[in-house]
Design a protein that fits this description.
alpha+beta; Immunoglobulin-like; Cyclophilin; 8 helices; 15% helix
């Protein structure tokens, strides 16, 4: 009897504990199909009729991690390098793929015997118009004349095999991709790597002065002024240099240099066909920030005869004595010093240019600089900024020191426009909007 009473009492206690709200309910084990990383789902009380609510599965937490050497990862990294697409970014934030044909150089330097390769991509493969899909490669020289054509090109193309005469180029030319009749993208510069001819000099007296300077009178066996009778005797002492040969090629996408100043912007087109090493040096210094926060430390709006002269910058010390720490060899550029043409400043020694440059302000005052200084480009926009800098008040006339130095805020590279046969880009050079001494409207 006593045992029966004990059993009944124990049953009543267990039943009371099972219905207590403070007692946790033992959870039902999760189904085998639910990932172990998911939280366990508590059962819904039997009194409710609503279905069990489960959180949506996070598929990324169960996606296997691909090894770094897998083909998929290698392809994503390749696309990242070629197209600057972050391979880890979600698809919605990635830049849409380019549907236009593109081309790029395979490498910067190529051997003289090749291969000289560029990579051409067709773009939108869904375009079924064969005429529009036909890609043509044109080789255009500095006079905007076509030197060679290769039709129906795509993929990895060895230019030496598809266009004849490239291996005998004497100066830089441009490769332009054309789709149908439409030029596509910026051209690629093909620059033959050649040593410039030896520079010929003599000592001379500056006009209207007693100062003696080193005057350039020729290059190799070619006199700068064939009509100068004084050169004939000097030429007899010239020692012939080594015959020029092509050491290889430099291939790169054509770029302009955008100069942002506190007087406005100046866009410069480079002329690698005239001065390849000088143009490349300026482009590299501009790209890498050497000129940022420098300025135009010398402003000479007119020479002694009242003709427009130069504005000069490129010295990060703003003293007129600073430079990049190296010197450039003088190149025999034939680009005339005229308004908007950019050229390298230097000391008396011909091979002493480094980073300082100047813009010519007019042919009347700067024609005498032809052959003596290396012109390497020309401004295609920014005449208001150039004229505004030239009109800066001068504190020291003898040195051309401005009262307030015009500041070069930044320089950066921008894609150059396409080139087409018969269209000489030099015709786009800026024209002056102001007369000497006139204060031009600024572009601030």
């Amino acid at each position: 009897m006593i045992k029966l009473v004990h059993l009944l009492t124990f049953a009543l206690i267990v039943n009371a504990q099972a219905q207590s709200p403070e007692t946790p309910v033992t959870p039902t084990p999760a189904p085998a199909t639910v990932p172990a990383t998911e939280p366990a789902i508590a059962p819904t009380p039997a009194s409710t009729s609503r279905p069990v609510q489960r959180p949506e599965r996070d598929a990324t937490r169960t996606r296997p991690v691909r090894p770094v050497d897998s083909p998929d990862v290698a392809d994503r990294l390749r696309r990242f390098r070629e197209n600057a697409i972050d391979p880890n970014a979600p698809p919605s934030s990635r830049t849409p793929p380019n549907t236009s044909p593109t081309m790029r150089p395979s490498r910067l330097y190529c051997a003289a015997h090749g291969p000289l390769e560029i990579i051409i991509r067709r773009g939108d493969v869904n375009d079924r118009d064969e005429a529009n899909q036909s890609l043509t490669l044109m080789l255009i020289d500095h006079n905007s004349e076509v030197l060679g054509i290769a039709k129906d090109v795509h993929g990895r193309v060895n230019v030496l095999e598809v266009i004849s005469g490239v291996d005998s180029l004497e100066r830089a030319a441009w490769l332009q991709l054309v789709k149908g009749d439409e030029p596509i993208g910026s051209p690629i510069v093909i620059q033959p790597i050649r040593e410039p001819p030896p520079v010929r000099t003599t000592r001379a007296i500056r006009p209207n002065s007693t100062a003696i300077y080193t005057k350039i009178i020729g290059w190799g066996d070619r006199p700068l002024d064939p009509d100068d009778p004084t050169i004939d005797e000097v030429r007899k002492s010239w020692i012939a240099g080594d015959p020029p040969i092509i050491s290889g090629f430099k291939t790169y996408t054509d770029m302009d240099v955008l100069i942002r100043t506190d007087h406005g912007e100046i866009l410069v087109a480079l002329a690698p066909d005239e001065a390849p090493s000088t143009a490349w040096n300026f482009r590299t210094l501009a790209r890498d920030g050497f000129y940022d926060r420098s300025g135009f430390h010398r402003v000479v709006p007119a020479d002694r005869d009242g003709n427009p002269f130069v504005i000069q910058g490129g010295d990060p010390t703003l003293t007129g004595n600073g430079g990049p720490g190296f010197a450039l060899g003088l190149e025999p550029s034939t680009l005339p010093h005229d308004y908007g043409v950019i050229s390298m400043a230097r000391a008396d020694e011909p091979h002493s240019a480094g980073s300082q440059f100047f813009f010519a302000l007019g042919r009347e005052g700067t024609a005498r600089l032809d052959g003596q200084y290396c012109s390497f480009g020309y401004a295609v926009s920014g005449s208001r900024a150039v004229d505004s800098i030239a009109a800066t008040p001068i504190a020291d006339i003898t040195e051309g020191r401005p009262a307030t130095i015009p500041v070069i805020l930044t320089m950066r590279l921008v894609n150059a426009p396409a080139r087409m046969p018969g269209i000489d880009r030099r015709n786009d050079r800026i024209k002056s909007r102001a007369k000497v001494g006139e204060v031009a409207p600024t572009a601030r």
